[in-house]
Amino acid sequence: MQLKLIRNITFLVAAAALGLVSTQTHAQSVGNCEQSTAEAFLDINNIRAKIMNNGGIVWNGGDPVYEFPKGGGENTIFASGIWMGGLVDGQLRLAGSTYGPWEFWAGPLNDDGTSQSDCSPWDRLWKVSKEDVIAFDGGAPATPDLQDWPTGLGAPTLDANGDLIDLLDQPLASRIDRKINLAAGERPQILGDQLVWWIMNDMGNQHNRTDTPPMGIEGHGSAFAFNSAGALGNTTFYKFRLFYKGTVPLVDTYMGIFSDPDLGQFTDDYVGSDTTLGLGFVYNADDDDEGHYGPNVPASGYDFFQGPLVDSNGIDDNGDGQIDEEGERLKMTAFAFYNNGGGVTGDPQTGPDMYNYMRGRWKDGQRFTLGGNGRDFST
User: Fold this and answer.
1) 239, β-bridge pairs
2) What's the total number of domains in the chain?
3) Among the four 112, 203, 205, 368, which has the fewest Cβ within 10 Å?
4) According to the model, what pLDDT value does residue 48 have?
């Protein structure tokens, strides 16, 4: 299936630059893990969204699922996923994908930063809701995901006093099988009203999409939503904790969200960004989405609510008029758009192409410019 022939618009919201430093050892040999196949659905509010543990969101082959409104049969996004890359001694290391092959694999990294020999035991997502916990506390059996909640791997868990349990400073062997102790009063720390949690890494196998070495990243993902009316009920949230297990600093690091949005009929979609809000969005070209949403066509977007913390550097990094205030976080630092096709403004073919897009540059390294097509003000 030649996706590039039928997809029309793609955009990337870049989530800031940072440096990651670790004191742990790290071998750059990768594992021999199979591609992750597990999926779960966030479905407590007006959206039904597919979640995967391979770095992709919404689409994993087959039909996409970012359905709005839930049960209506129409989707606003075809494919989406995580890109992340940085430099180690000047060498680019990146994990990301568009439509596969994926470059994150299920499970934790070993204490020395190497991959598990078999990632399949962690090819799973754990989904819990506040209703699950209330039902259990009322005498109902625990759901399988509540019963198996992987506290030892880093799944957010509260003890009987409401304090967060953090075991990640312990050796992996001592905590790898540690599940939640419901009988002792432990409960999942649920963001929103429904939470999907997973663990992944970029060391499980070769990076065949970007053709770059791995970084040595272990990532903990949380997708959550609120059972609420209004805008909150039309929103899904994604939170990532990233652990770098290399010995050489990973610098000039960017994390981005790639998206191929389809508002029903994909041939009449436009995209844009609001730099003051850190928002990338897609909207219909007119007020009628023929054959799909009809006259009630929605818009959709991605917003970085909480970027990475910034070290003191004498710069107003978040544009709020204050320099180096406590808790300063980066907002969106770049928004990239490309139509399917070749050339320096087209599809990213390589890891360096993807890294340039995250940095706000075209594939040849030229900076995006204001106005027109972002490259030549006159067009």
Assistant:
1) 222
2) 1
3) 112
4) 98
